[in-house]
From TrEMBL, chain A:
Compartments in which it is found: Cell membrane
UniProt entry tagged with the keyword DNA repair: no
Domain ABC transmembrane type-1, chain residue ranges per copy: 75-282
SUPFAM superfamilies given in the database record: MetI-like
Protein name: Spermidine/putrescine ABC transporter permease
From TrEMBL, chain B:
Topology of this chain in the membrane: Multi-pass membrane protein
Name of the protein in question: Peptide ABC transporter permease
Principal place of residence: membrane
Subcellular location field: Cell membrane
PROSITE patterns reported in the protein's UniProt record: ABC_TM1 (PS50928)
UniProt family annotation: Belongs to the binding-protein-dependent transport system permease family. CysTW subfamily.
Keywords of this entry: Cell membrane, Membrane, Transmembrane, Transmembrane helix, Transport
Keyword match RNA-binding: no
Residue spans crossing the bilayer: 12-34, 70-91, 103-125, 131-154, 183-203, 234-253
Length: 295, 270
């Protein structure tokens, strides 16, 4: 590795590159993760007890989750809701990505992409906060529904999981649109035309031509969206209520309210395992590799 | 109407609704800034006012949070940009059996939830007696922002014509001169874009920051805490200002990018 680098850039520069890379990968990426995993397998001890007889590896922190019915329920709710958010986002994004890539003229597409980028650059907190205003008990959505006579009493949108999920689809949609757009854009228009000429209808063209081609994009979008949804703290904190807590909020409480970092580390590791599991599943299902995701 | 045309019409309609969905919430939030109501809402409309901008400007906590955010972003730029560049150069140069593993490791921060990056950073530095604050926020954020920088620099580096490099060396340039005079100028646009993105990513980060920020606050953490406690339309005023800055930046960035593309297209024709 060093030989190849120093042949191209010379010794000093090769050293600098390897130092920066090594420092980042070891001190910032790998060691903290390993430390977190190590923490999760140790009991929460007082400083005086460290190194004592109780200071050893244990599964205790993981048993806590299994024994705690509420936490277990929230874990699975986070899993299912994140899957649902991912699917919803996919369904909402696909027509848009297809339009951008294949239907719109280059000028229209460029304008739409600029319009898409703007909210994407705006703070996640602010994007979520704007939904907080809309969904409020006396907010505009309730007022409109009341005025239209669709409901008789205002609805408490902010007290269940629905508000959280609406906010998440809104917050993460662009992580789905762009990978999809990139994938569909690389499809040769002639393939779509050929399918039409051979008598395939719209649905069939999508099912047999466009979607199979867009697989890497679908996989990337789903992985990113799921990871963002499952790991989201801002959206449930702002749009949820105590009754619709997210797993990340439980983790936060272990750290900053329960004061049990070991327990928190175990929960965090489980969240990481969940995300890695989902990612491997999607990659296997769509038969794509890590190289396709980074495009 | 034939089914083909009906479908095309349906798609257009969908696109319109989609963009309404994308922008209406932001407009509602912006509008609520000017409502003379104690709570941030647009219904009922209690009269138009600019007083929330005044209240925002008088809020010392906000200014402190803003200066912290800028400090953190500056720190992140200093760390993440060099790391990202080094990483791209490494991947572009080295081919060995260990590379797929290193590549996966490099991408891993992008696929890890932000809260976990924050948590692991917090836990790791505790053994050295470092607790949450600006320093850890810089480290935590730079961990994944460096990977974004790498992707953007890499995209340009892959289109680099290596014969230019060889030509420079054949003409007697040292390797350092080649890097300094050929490769770095070539990468400059990508590095600048990456720096802009890195700055924004850092400025608006919440999930990672929340765990490593300790008793300090960044602007994003400040906004979130305001939303949950003591909410007034002053938050909207801040949001509106941030949105306007973002829109201006996004447009400037896009215009610059298009000019470059047009210039490239002209070059390609010659």
């Amino acid at each position: 590795m060093f030989r190849q680098l120093s042949e191209r850039f010379g010794h000093p520069l090769a050293m600098a590159i390897l130092t920066l890379l090594g420092m980042w990968l070891i001190v910032m990426v790998t060691l903290p993760q390993l430390q977190m995993i190590d923490y999760s397998f140790r009991p929460n001890l007082l400083p005086a007890q460290r190194g004592g007889p109780e200071d050893g590896w244990t599964l205790g922190n993981y048993v806590t989750l299994f024994d705690n019915e509420i936490h277990r329920a929230i874990f699975f709710k986070t899993l299912w809701s994140s899957v649902l958010v991912t699917l919803l986002t996919l369904v909402v994004s696909y027509p848009l990505a297809y339009y951008l890539a294949k239907v719109a003229t280059p000028r229209q597409a460029a304008l739409c992409i600029l319009l898409l980028i703007i909210p994407f650059w705006i703070n996640e907190i602010l994007r979520t906060y704007s939904w907080f205003i809309i969904l409020a008990f006396r907010g505009p959505l309730n007022e409109i529904l009341l005025a239209l006579g669709l409901i008789e009493r205002p609805i408490r949108f902010l007290s269940g999981d629905a508000g959280v999920m609406v906010g998440m689809v809104y917050a993460y949609i662009l992580f789905m649109v762009f990978p999809l757009y990139n994938a569909i854009e690389s499809l040769d228009d002639n393939q779509i035309r050929a399918a039409r000429d051979l008598g395939a209808g719209s649905i069939r063209t999508h099912r047999r031509i466009v979607i199979p081609h867009a697989k890497p994009g679908i996989a990337t979008g789903c992985i990113m969206t799921f990871m963002l949804a499952a790991g989201s703290y801002a959206v449930p904190a702002l749009l949820g209520s105590p009754g619709s807590r997210w797993f990340t909020q439980i983790i936060y409480n272990w750290f900053f309210e329960g004061g049990n970092w070991n327990q928190g580390a175990a929960y965090a590791f489980l969240l990481l395992v969940l995300c890695i599991g989902f990612m491997s599943l999607v990659m296997k299902f769509f038969k794509v590799g890590l190289g396709d995701i980074a495009k | 109407m034939s089914s083909q045309r009906l479908l095309a019409f349906g798609l257009r309609f969908y696109i319109t609704v989609f963009f309404l969905y994308l922008f209406l919430p932001l407009m509602v939030m912006a509008a609520a800034t000017f409502n003379d109501s104690r709570f941030p809402t647009i219904t009922p409309w209690d009269g138009t006012t600019l007083r929330w901008f005044g209240e925002l400007a008088a809020d010392g906590g906000m200014w402190q949070a803003l200066s912290n955010s800028l400090l953190v972003a500056a720190g992140v730029l200093c760390l993440a940009v060099p790391i990202g560049i080094a990483c791209a150069l490494f991947l572009n140069t080295v081919s060995s059996r260990g590379k797929p593993f290193i590549y996966a490791l490099i991408l891993s921060p992008l696929l890890t939830p932000g809260v976990i990056i924050g948590i692991s950073t917090l836990i790791f530095w505790r053994q050295f007696g470092v607790s949450g604050g600006i320093f850890l926020t810089v480290l935590g954020q730079a961990t994944f922002i460096a990977a974004y920088v790498m992707l953007m620099v890499m995209a340009r580096l892959q289109r680099f014509d290596r014969t230019m490099e060889r030509a420079a060396l054949d003409l007697g340039a040292s390797q350092w001169q080649m890097f300094r005079r050929i490769l770095l100028p070539y990468l400059k646009p990508a590095i600048l874009s990456a720096a802009v993105i890195a700055f924004l990513q850092s400025f608006e980060n919440y999930n990672t920051t929340l765990f490593v920020v300790g008793y300090d606050t960044t602007l994003t953490v400040y906004i979130a805490s305001k939303v949950r406690t003591g909410l007034t339309p002053a938050v909207n005023a801040l949001g509106l200002i941030l949105i306007l800055i973002t829109v201006a930046l996004a447009i400037a960035y896009e215009v610059k990018r298009r000019r470059e593309q047009a210039a490239l297209a002209r070059l390609a024709r010659v």
